[in-house]
Specification:
Length: 265
């Protein structure tokens, strides 16, 4: 059944926690889980996706103005929160799209239940350890200066550059909360759940890995190794993009996702 959504919803309360949710478009439901840099950089992609789908894009608990319930401390906790959200909204046949930290959340959801899902898109995903214990799979972003971080995560660092002295206070607060929440959920173990890798075989639905080719935080080899652990998953590069391909190439990113949605199973 096709469902129509208003341009933007009011804040939503899930299991007692108030979170912000952007809703756009009409058609088959697509839930977009944003990256560790927050919801604002995803807005252009959300608008592109909404041209052909009903997009539901929540701001994660602890990010932006969304509340953080006391019981949510890990990405595993976030996955159960979003399973409750899917139940509360009564969504079925969902294409679940996650970028970076959002893709990790999406994977944690999919290994638990795909009952309400039809497809999964993982973009520049984190969440597992690929190499041995002595090999760093994921660059330590908390040890970098801002210019170093931008050079590592963007193909064009200027796209991620922000002048915090001139930004509205709400955006500065959102950026600060994003960094705080990322540290809370991904500091230790660093950007992965040691148990997730052994559960990836449970993802039994069509899966597309999209990967910004110029990502130097988690490189292509990591992405391909991750993809190989998910049954029948497909891997595609997004050129001229780094760790946040949805932000650097919103039109190309949305076209890939929508084409994947339209494929016959």
């Amino acid at each position: 059944m096709l469902q129509t959504a208003p341009a933007e919803s009011d804040p939503l309360t899930v299991e007692g926690a108030r979170i912000d949710v952007i809703e756009r478009g009409a058609g088959q439901p697509l839930v977009f889980l944003h990256a560790e840099n927050g919801i604002e950089p995803a807005r252009a992609t959300i608008e592109e996706l909404a041209k052909s789908a009903r997009v539901i894009a929540p701001t994660h608990p602890g990010f932006g103005c969304s509340e953080l319930p006391h019981g949510i401390r890990t990405v595993d906790d976030l996955s159960y929160f979003y399973l409750d959200l899917l139940d509360q909204l009564g969504l079925n046949g969902v294409t679940l799209v996650g970028v970076a930290l959002g893709a990790w959340i999406a994977a944690e959801i999919a290994v638990k239940s795909t009952e309400r899902l039809s497809r999964l898109v993982m973009a520049n995903a984190v969440g597992i350890k690929v190499g041995d214990r002595e090999t760093r799979d994921i660059a330590d972003i908390f040890a970098l200066t801002e210019p170093e971080y931008l050079a590592m995560t963007y193909c064009d660092p200027d796209i991620g550059l922000r002048d915090y002295k001139t930004l509205p206070q709400a955006e500065v607060l959102a950026a600060a909360r994003a960094r705080e929440a990322t540290a809370r959920f991904a500091w230790s173990p660093y950007f992965h759940n040691p148990r997730l890798k052994s559960r990836l075989h449970r993802i039994r639905l069509p899966v597309l890995f999209l990967w910004g080719a110029q990502d130097r935080m988690v490189d292509e080899a990591y992405g391909r190794a991750y993809c190989a652990m998910v049954p029948d998953a497909r891997f595609e590069l997004v050129e001229r993009a780094g760790h946040f391909p949805h932000q650097e190439q919103p039109i190309a990113f949305a076209k890939r996702v929508l084409a994947f949605m339209d494929e016959k199973q």
